[in-house]
Design goal:
Largest sheet: none
Order of helices and strands: HHH
Helix content: over 70%
Oligomer: single chain
Distance between the termini: 38 Å
Number of strands: 0
Radius of gyration: 13 Å
Mean pLDDT: 94
Low-confidence stretches: none
Strand content: under 5%
Shape: elongated
Structural class: mainly alpha
């Protein structure tokens, strides 16, 4: 695998996790586990020397949605 292939693999996995989290949120449920998994993927990427704006955006968007749930009193 080339460097780009590995980075793309991280992005693909993050997209699958993100999409599942969005399904939960659209259904009115929090996606706290999704938030943790996405931040873990981002941390692993950093440890491997990769940086992805896509993965960072997925993390931020899920966190924002979960923060709204937290503001409504829904806790982890």
């Amino acid at each position: 695998m080339t460097i780009m292939d590995k980075e793309q693999a991280f992005e693909i996995v993050a997209k699958v996790v993100f999409d599942r989290g969005i399904q939960l949120i659209v259904g009115g449920n929090p996606a706290f586990e999704t938030e943790r998994v996405l931040f873990h993927i981002e941390m692993c990427m950093t440890e491997w020397g990769y940086r992805s704006a896509k993965v960072s955006e997925y993390c931020d968007l899920i966190k924002q949605e979960n923060d709204l749930m937290r503001e409504m009193g829904i806790e982890e």
